[in-house]
TrEMBL record:
Entry annotated with the keyword DNA repair: no
VWFA domain mapped to chain residues: 159-386
SMART domains to which the protein is assigned, alphabetical: VWA
Protein name: VWA domain-containing protein
InterPro entries listed in its UniProt record: CLCR, VWF_A, vWFA_dom_sf
Transmembrane residue ranges: 745-762
Leader peptide range in chain numbering: 1-33
Species of the source: Dawidia soli
Length: 767
């Protein structure tokens, strides 16, 4: 018989107690967390929903601790969204005491986690009574439910955010028009865009609108995205609650805060809606914070929202890097201005490093024929926004009417919808007669006017049956009325033909050859045999030279935007008052034939020495045995601007003016063309690492006063950057020779070569 070691008794006793405590805790834990109440759903299993179809689900708190007289505060979160609510997916909720009813027509497809919490409105409302336990839920109860929403639409819904310039310069009158302001033309172009968006809309499509001057001005309250094309409750196109009415109620004023407008539009975007598009419109250079940076190394980053303490209301989620934003989106820019502005907007559109979100820019450098030019830009932008779907441009044609003119559009056999739009100055359009004919039938009575500068006709394969006609074939648009410029646009809906066009790389400089490429398919297969031609509207002369050499204009009764850079003011005044300048801005037309194989049509254009806007109009036409007769139009633009400053042509010097040392610089490129005015954001001069302020002389030159204390230093270092390119990095003393002084090592090398030559000559003479 063995004896137990007395020393082990305390250990055994302690271990036994611990085991008993653990068992007790395991036995009592369920009782502590027990909750005999729950949240149930009706139907018992949450049903799957479908975009744009009615959905209903009821949540009910039930169990022994629930009384019919109890009331709860319901909190419903959608886990997939930051601070998400039912509204994020198009649903609403109604509390009904112990129940909560979810209804609506979903606008987003996906699987979502509903985090549901029912909290007692006062104290601990649960009282389970004998045999039940409510210890774990005396004042609230939480559950999670999975909700699945399928996409029953033809395509995924598209989000479009309009970011519109409402600064003071937008009140300027468009020269040659019937007293139209730039704001009025923009309003009508936006309205025409919305009509097209409605005509091609899906139930879940959404629209967001924000305006910017030096503050934020949103459309509607609360701010954000709104379901636009809902089948049963669409946002109105006209009247109360419409974007048109909202723009009518607003007017231009203030500065141009481009970066702030983009920040606000970006804050609307929703990662759960994959088709995200932003359309940015402005008529002038940004002149107040927050700005889109143009500085080397930080360009395309908005990071200065806090620099203005005046409370603008722009979102402060910074920095926003347009090259790689957290929520990716595609940007389309439309601008009216000089090459400095158009180059900035082009960079914004093409900023994303993810090519799938690469946008397009549609710049305009003159207000001549602004209604037509702006409508053309917005028409192509509309097609781009739905590029993965079906709207396609047949053509955009300009008619210089004398008394009567007509044009014919061809709708191909697989097209099932047609939109025709006629744009002109309101003064002549109001008196014009618009006739639309097909197969000997007159459809003129169906032309609609929701704006003063355009008329719209829409037809589809279902409606046309009433007229014993078919949609495919030739449609004639005939205009009779006052003389002037009319623009006619044709758009079809077609799932079979797919067309795209590109200009190769994202940016070009003067002298580069522009690559032209169009891709054409029919039902996924190459569509060969098209007659493919590109019409090129190129600058008649270098627009930067033109701008620099134009004399100053003293505006008369002209709404100048306060805070404008002098270069911007000069450009706006030239457009308004200098007919010679605006006439010189008119483009010269060239054309290039494309050669095709395998559905790919290619070519090249090399007449690009002049800086300016190059507009490329791709027109493809054909009559294929399967696809039938067809025509397509794609608009592309390139802002070709300056390139690099040429050291042999650029002037850099220091002069004494009024007892001060002034550094003067006049940048020119390899063709001898000026950089031009309005480039203060693109020129940077550092003395010993410190920036010095530059003044735009408005003639292509810039100057800066050099601080005397810097000059007194021992040959300080000077750094000059022009358009993001390093132009000069060396000692101040070399600037005395225009910044073109040879480096010391090269002088030493030349001296050594001269010495060797001299020795050789001496030896040769001795022989």
């Amino acid at each position: 018989m063995s004896r137990k070691d007395p020393s082990l008794f305390p250990v055994i006793r302690t271990g036994t107690v611990m085991i008993l405590l653990v068992l007790l805790s395991l036995w009592s834990k369920p009782a502590f967390a027990q909750c005999d109440n729950s949240i149930t759903t009706t139907p018992a299993m949450p049903p799957a929903g479908e975009i744009c179809n009615s959905y209903s689900l009821t949540l009910t708190v039930s169990g022994p601790g629930v009384q019919n007289t109890d009331s709860f505060d319901w909190i419903i979160r959608v886990a997939e969204y930051p601070m998400g609510t039912l509204a994020n997916i198009g649903l609403t909720g109604t509390p009904l005491g112990t129940s909560y009813k979810i209804t609506g027509e979903p606008t987003v497809a996906g699987t979502f986690t509903l985090q549901v919490e029912a909290r007692c409105t006062s104290g601990s409302c649960f009282d389970c009574g004998a045999g039940s336990n409510c210890t774990g839920c005396r004042d609230h109860i939480s559950e999670e439910f999975s909700l699945q929403i399928a996409n029953g639409s033809v395509r995924e819904p598209v989000d479009v955010v309009l970011v519109l310039d409402m600064s003071g310069s937008m009140s300027q009158t468009v020269p040659g028009s019937s007293s139209l302001s730039k704001w009025a033309v923009l309003k009508e172009s936006v309205q025409a865009f919305l009509e097209a968006y409605r005509a091609w809309g899906e139930c879940g499509d959404r629209i967001g609108v924000t305006y910017f001057d030096d503050a934020r001005h949103d459309f509607k309250t609360p701010r954000g995205m709104y379901v636009f094309n809902h089948d049963t409750a669409p946002m109105p196109l006209t009247g109360t609650g419409s974007v048109q009415a909202d723009m009518d109620a607003k007017g231009p004023a203030g500065l141009t805060c481009l970066g702030g407008g983009i920040l606000e539009g970006y804050s609307f975007l929703d990662p759960m809606h994959p088709k995200r598009n932003m359309i940015v419109f402005t008529d002038g250079m940004q002149n107040t914070d927050p700005m889109v940076s143009e500085a080397p190394g930080t360009n395309m980053v908005i990071n200065d929202s806090g620099m203005r303490p005046d409370g603008t209301g722009f979102p402060a989620t910074l920095p926003l890097d347009l090259k790689a934003p957290a929520v990716k989106f595609r940007t389309y820019t439309v601008g009216i201005g000089d090459n400095a502005l158009n180059g900035l907007l082009d960079n914004i559109a093409h900023a994303p490093t993810d090519n799938a979100f690469d946008g397009e820019s549609f710049p305009i450098n003159t207000t001549t024929n602004l209604p037509a030019s702006l409508d053309m830009s917005f028409s192509q932008t509309f097609v781009e926004n739905l590029a993965q779907f079906s709207p396609q441009l047949l053509d955009i044609r300009r008619i210089q009417l004398v008394q009567e003119a007509s044009t014919i559009f061809v709708a191909n056999p697989t097209a099932d919808k047609l939109m025709l739009r006629i744009v002109a100055d309101p003064a002549i359009l109001a008196k014009a007669r618009i006739q639309i004919e097909k197969d000997g039938k007159d459809f003129s009575s169906l032309v609609r006017a929701n704006g003063t500068m355009y008329r719209t006709f829409i037809m589809d394969t279902i409606r046309i049956r009433r007229y014993q006609a078919t949609l495919p074939g030739k449609w004639t648009v005939r205009i009779t009325g006052p003389a002037g410029l009319y623009q006619v646009t044709g758009i079809v809906n077609d799932e079979s033909i797919d067309v795209s066009a590109s200009l190769g790389q994202k940016s070009y400089v003067p002298g580069d050859a522009v690559s032209l490429e169009a891709l054409l398919q029919y039902k996924g297969q190459p569509l060969n045999g098209a007659h493919a031609r590109v019409w090129v509207a190129r600058p008649g002369q270098d627009v930067n030279d033109l701008f620099a050499q134009a004399g100053a204009v003293e505006p008369r009764d002209f709404p100048i935007e306060k805070g404008n850079d002098p270069g911007q003011t000069k450009y706006e005044a030239l457009l308004a008052f200098d007919k010679v300048f605006t006439a010189a801005l008119q483009p010269t037309i060239d054309s290039v034939s494309l050669t095709g194989a395998g559905g790919k049509y290619t070519g090249s254009y090399s007449n690009t020495q002049a800086s300016g806007i190059y507009t490329f109009i791709f027109r493809l036409q054909g009559n294929d045995p399967q696809a039938g007769e067809y025509e397509r139009f794609v608009l592309r633009t390139a802002v070709i601007d300056f390139g690099e400053a040429d050291r042999s042509k650029t002037l850099v010097r220091t002069v004494r003016v009024d007892a001060q040392t002034v550094l003067q610089i006049t940048p020119k490129n390899k063709f001898g063309s000026l950089l031009g005015p309005n480039r203060l954001s693109q020129l940077h001069i550092l003395l010993e690492g410190k920036a010095i302020a530059l003044t735009d002389k408005l003639d292509g030159s810039y100057e800066a006063v050099v601080p005397e204390e810097v000059i007194s230093e021992d040959d300080p270092k000077v750094t000059i950057t022009i358009k993001g390119q390093s132009y000069y990095d060396g000692p101040y003393s070399d600037l005395e020779n225009g910044g073109h002084k040879l480096p010391k090592w090269l002088w030493y090398l030349l001296g050594l070569l001269f010495l060797i030559l001299l020795i050789w000559l001496i030896r040769r003479k001795r022989r």
